[in-house]
Amino acid sequence: MVVQQYRDGGGARAARALAVAGVIAVTAGCVGEVGAGGGSDGSGQRAVAAERPFDVLGRAAGVLTEAGGAEARTSMETAAGGTRVTIRGEGTYDFRKQMGRLTVVLPTDAAGAEDHRPITELLAPGALYMKNRGAGVPDDKWVRIDTTALEDGNLVTGGVTDPMAAAELLRGAGDVTYEGKTELAGVTVHHYRGIADMDRAARAASPQSRGALSAAAKGFSKDAVPFDAYLDEEGRLRKVRHRFSFSSQGQEAAEVTVVSTLSLYGFGAPVIVRLPDEDDIYTGEIRQG
């Protein structure tokens, strides 16, 4: 196994505690510009392994924008007080428009019911739309959330880390180790391990992602986010796992760890996202239950 160590400056910065929100609250209650450079192996593919890891990771979001649409699978595992719950999602995402549609499934009994309906989520720059979001919301209505106003920038609120935000976080990579080659679903990938600094990532992010990531950099108790990233020979992000940490609020405050994993495949897949009309958005009170 090839192991190379790279270091870049930056460190954790204390910030105010983040309250568990959105889907995570339900479950816990029951528990940049594309670089033109890059080597080539003669086949038209980027020689990813030969490049500096910071260049590869910093360019990952831009390479996905070039790729356009992709199919996505997500999982988000929350650990608090010795209890773990996992939320899973699946759908498609358009990296050019930064819009996607995912179906999110809560674990059994996570919302106090044996059979909780899947949540449909529409992701858009600065906004998250959810159907079947919570008690009291009519079946034909959507809930809209301004992600730039969330303390976590929607990195954990919806039970899914926005795929573009997950890639943009790699712009803040530091202390990177190249772990060598491996395979994912029959595809050769290069494995990188490191720490992403949220504040640095927010400053380097695209305009559409900057607001949400800036909010996250202020809201988490730790803005140093450990990650494992797997990129194919063309520099496309195939899988990334982030480990977020924050302090829960309430009578028994505790450190909460959220492990968010994104897997991408089927590049070039068509993505159709139609945002709800204003009349279809629910503006009343949402009950947790």
Query: What is the element string, with H for helices and E for strands?
Result: EHHEEEEEEHEEHHEEE
Strand content: 35-45%
Largest sheet: 12 strands, antiparallel
Strand ordering within the main sheet: 1-8-9-10-11-12-2-3-4-5-6-7
Q: What's the overall average pLDDT, rounded?
A: 80
Rg from C-alpha positions? 19 Å
Look at the helices and sheets and give the structural class.
alpha+beta
Secondary structure: helix percent: 10-25%
Q: Please report the distance between the alpha carbons of the first and last residues.
A: 49 Å
**Which geometry do the CA atoms define?**
globular
Low-confidence stretches: 1-47
Question: What's the total count of β strands?
Answer: 12
Number of helices: 5
Q: Can you summarize this structure?
A:
The protein has 289 residues and is of the alpha+beta class. The chain is built from five helices and twelve strands.
Structure description:
The chain is α+β, with helices and mostly antiparallel strands and 289 residues long. The protein is built from five helices and twelve strands. The protein has helices at residues 22-29, 53-67, 163-168, 198-204, 207-219; strands at 4-5, 69-80, 83-94, 99-105, 119-124, 127-131, 142-146, 173-184, 187-197, 224-232, 237-247, 255-265. Strands 1-8-9-10-11-12-2-3-4-5-6-7 form a twelve-stranded antiparallel β-sheet. A hairpin with a 2-residue loop joins strand 2 and strand 3. Helix 4 (198-204) runs antiparallel to helix 5. The longest helix is centred in the N-terminal third of the chain and has 15 residues, at 53-67. Mean pLDDT is 80; it is low at 1-47.
